[in-house]
Amino acid sequence: MTNELYQKAIKFAGEKHATQKIPGSEANYLVHISNVAMEILMAYSAQKNFNIDLAIQAAILHDVIEDTDTTYEEVKKNFGGSVADAVLALTKNVSLPDKRDQMKDSLSRINKLSKEVGMVKLADRITNLQSPPPHWKKEKIQAYHEEAKLIADTLTEKNTYLMTRLLERIEAYHQYL
């Protein structure tokens, strides 16, 4: 992995997410992005059997289409088709009526691409399984936990390190139920 790829992606994401905060926090959204990237880097240090360049760029950019006004074409122009396809697969289709259907659709699209894309989704959920925002009701916390289990059940055989981490985080999340 080159430093230039990382720096280009983090600058792009930083500009796109400039005003966004982590839900339930005053922390800038780049904290979340850097945590997802760190999970990918730790997985690579455990086993170098995947395309780190694709995985790290997708990790850093995974929410730019979903959470900002960034288009697929803009990601493709700046980072190439593979990264843009990854980010698009990681983006929920909000035209679907139900959040569970949105997640199932995204997971289906993720599974059609390389394992690196699935690894980013695993890393994203690992990072998100921290204490829920104070305003979340019990039902939302339960639904989020169930969604995490769906992710683990659907994205099998992507990366042993990340799957182990996700299963540990799912187990630890029980304390909030």
Automatic annotation (TrEMBL):
Species of origin:
Aquimarina hainanensis
Name the source's superkingdom.
Bacteria
> Signal peptide position in this chain?
none
Q: What is this protein called?
A: HD domain-containing protein
Q: Which Gene3D superfamilies match?
A: Hypothetical protein af1432
Q: Which PANTHER family match?
A: GUANOSINE-3',5'-BIS(DIPHOSPHATE) 3'-PYROPHOSPHOHYDROLASE MESH1
- What InterPro entries has UniProt attached to this entry? HD/PDEase_dom (IPR003607), MESH1 (IPR052194)
Q: Which residues form a coiled coil?
A: none
Enumerate the Pfam families for this protein. HD_4 (PF13328)
